[in-house]
Write a structure and sequence with these properties.
Blueprint lengths: L4 E5 L11 H11 L3 E5 L8 H14 L2 E5 L11 H21 L4 E3 L2 E2 L5 H21 L7 E4 L6 E2 L2 H11 L4 E6 H7 L6 H15 L7 E5 L1 E5 L2 E6 L9 H10 L3 E5 L4 H17 L1
Parallel strand pairs: 1-12, 2-3, 3-4, 4-6, 6-8, 8-9, 9-12
Antiparallel strand pairs: 5-7, 10-11
Helix pairs in contact: 1-2, 2-3, 3-4, 5-7, 7-8, 8-9
This protein binds zinc ion.
Length: 282
């Protein structure tokens, strides 16, 4: 039961001996973590051979991989050129993920740029549809797009919007990726188990019980202002707290992957894993 949730760092662990993605994956396995997110946040530059080798290491060490797409994406950009560039970033991340055997690829969907959410939603639907068409053309399969709950109020991707996207395209194609720190900064302060249960219930109401069977989420502490996130903090900040979330997952029987985005990526992933295992023994 406690092992139904895997934990891993957002990127190559800081204390990895050696360099590169494959070494990072191997180190995750050694220290007892079961997941790692490969970061393409500043661009996708991984060649096929390197990706396939890293994918083999992941299989051997039982480390489940996901990817993070570049930050420069805006699926509801005003300019066509920026939409096409966004499709390109998403599809190249999906291509690398396909070689790696990774899924989902986590995406910050876009920015409202002072427009009504409904106007942006239409563009977002169109852009993601273009991504799926292009992925099909390139025979990229088994890679789910993960729409992340974004941290700033100016960004497309509040909880209702990412649930809507997953409902629109189907969970097998697009899944919501809850970043609990972002939710805490942007929507509502999280403190108790009930606060977390309310989120899980909204997911299940919008997407059915499937939503909790193989979730993908981000967790860390966070510093924020009225506009939303400022920067990620260590888990020890307790803002938001993790133990009540672990209790909520246990109560609802959820399972999946937790990627730790604290500055102490792998050390805090182990801290979270420890808290989850403690919850399982209760
Ligand atoms: Zn992100």
């Amino acid at each position: 039961m406690p092992d139904s949730i895997r934990f891993g760092p957002a990127g190559i662990p800081i204390d990895t001996p050696g360099e590169g993605t494959a070494a990072g994956i191997e180190y995750c396995g050694q220290i007892g973590l079961g997941a790692m997110e490969v970061e393409f946040v500043h661009g996708v530059n991984m060649k096929e051979e390197k990706a396939r080798i890293a994918g083999e290491v992941a299989k051997k060490t039982h480390v489940l991989l996901s990817c993070h797409a570049p930050y420069y994406i805006n699926c509801c950009a005003k300019e066509r050129q920026k939409i096409h560039a966004s499709v390109n970033y998403i599809v190249s991340t999906a291509q690398a993920a396909f070689w790696l055997g990774a899924s989902p690829i986590v995406i910050h969907t876009g920015f409202y740029m002072q427009r009504p959410a409904a106007e942006c939603k239409k563009l977002v639907y169109e852009t993601y549809k273009m991504c799926f068409d292009e992925m099909e053309k390139r025979k990229i399969s088994g890679v789910v797009l993960g729409a992340e709950l974004t941290g700033k109020k100016s960004a497309y991707g509040c909880l209702d919007e990412i649930i809507d996207l997953a409902a629109h395209f189907g969970l097998k194609n697009l899944m919501p990726v809850i970043d609990y720190a972002h939710y805490h900064a942007r929507e509502k302060r999280l403190g108790s188990k009930d606060d977390y249960l309310a989120i899980l219930e909204r997911m299940e109401a919008g997407l059915g019980s499937e939503a909790g069977k193989n979730f993908h989420c981000h967790f860390s502490g966070i510093e924020f202002t009225g506009a939303g996130e400022r920067n990620h903090l260590p888990v020890s900040s307790g803002s938001p707290p993790f133990a009540p979330l672990a209790a909520a997952w246990k109560e609802n029987g959820w399972s999946g992957t937790v990627i730790c985005e604290s500055p102490l990526i792998e050390k805090d992933a182990l801290v979270l894993q420890g808290l989850w295992q403690k919850e399982g023994k209760r």
